[in-house]
Amino acid sequence: MADQFAPRKEDKFTFGLWTVGNRGADPFGPVVRPHTSAPKIVEKLAELGAYGVSLHDNDLIPHGAADAEQRIKDFEKSLKDNDMVVAMGTTNLFSHPVFRDGAFTNPDPAIRRYALQKTVQSIDMSVGRFGAKIYVFWGGREGSETDVAKDAMDAVKRNRECFNYLTSYCKDKKYDVKFALEAKPNEPRGDIYNSTTGACLGFIATLEHPEMVGVNPEVGHETMAGLNFYHVVAQAIEAGKLFHIDLNAQKIGRFDQDHRFGSEDYKNSFFVVKLLEESGYEGPRHFDSHAYRTEDMDGVWEFARGSMRTYKILAQKVKQFAADKEIQALINKGQKEPMAKYSKDAHKKLMGEKFDIEKIAEKGSGYEKLDQMLFDLFTGVRK
């Protein structure tokens, strides 16, 4: 019997090479799993039903590698042989010691120029050669531990200069690509610039080519800031700026955990899937997470399988929710009633309207019952 939750290519599930390739090292212990080559990762993810992969430049070509072209050719062959795509590319601007005080916001202009050079080379590979349509920017080192270190306004200006350069470069090359900014409040820096998706949206509006730039919100990063990821994604979609998304799980108040999607907050995960499935979002469902350090390689592939399965199960629950007549009847339909646009006539009507606010205030919203019905649906009590 076919598994209704088995992933298919059309689901557009993608994983970073760094996710299933994570070897389990942490600040307190070394690696616990063997290295897995990029071609092998592509092959195994294809077997599991994934659509594609994403990569940092150094995931494929380690810094200083002398066999770059051969690595690229082997990777291209694996993509072709396994009918997989590169859906997103990004640049590692955080690992090398040269970036210890940032890349695009670094006070040293030579480091900023090197960061641009490295990014251009990575774009040429991921977009120009592999055909990626999305390019993500996570400013992991763009921040500070002490505000005496650099002027925050200067840092914003430097960041803007680099993004204006890169968008102009891509337009000049006629690359079919969009940029997506990924927010994070802290770690590895004490404070990171563009710390939330809302901050990124504000920054994007100041760029020379804002139409090319959107956001890549991540569950863990927004949860670290104590924010509701569902609200974050809703704002991004409503603004027309959700270009990519990173799905994982995170406990509030912890370090960046990158757990398997859905493993911590079922309810918030449900509403995120509901947004993606019902809003018309057409981008990849990307998993930026990794297996627990307790796992061997079999556990890594169970993690990958589980990530996709969880999404599919939640998508099925979304359909059940939408088809449940009792639930839908209880939802306040007036929420979708738009306000009238301003005109002199509309204003006159508004100001003349009489409201019995005491009577209106007597009626409750019924959210307790709705919330319990959602729980019943989750647990299978409600069919």
Short key terms for the protein model shown above:
383 residues; alpha/beta; TIM Barrel; 2 domains; two-stranded antiparallel ribbon; 15 helices; 10 strands
Beta-strand fraction estimate: 5-15%
Poorly predicted parts: none
Largest sheet: 8 strands, parallel
> Total number of helical segments?
15
Q: How widely separated are the two ends?
A: 22 Å
Strands across the major sheet, in which order?
Answer: 8-6-4-3-2-1-10-9
What structural category do the secondary elements indicate?
alpha/beta
CATH topology of the largest domain: TIM Barrel
Q: How many individual β-strands?
A: 10
Output mean pLDDT. 96
Task: From the alpha carbons, calculate the radius of gyration and give it in angstroms.
Answer: 23 Å
Q: Write down the oligomeric state.
A: single chain
Overall body shape: globular
Element order: H for helix, E for strand: EHHEHHEHEEHEEHEHHEHEHHHHH
| Total domain units | 2
CATH class category label of the largest domain: Alpha Beta
CATH homology superfamily name of the largest domain: Divalent-metal-dependent TIM barrel enzymes
Share of helical residues: 40-55%
CATH architecture of the largest domain: Alpha-Beta Barrel
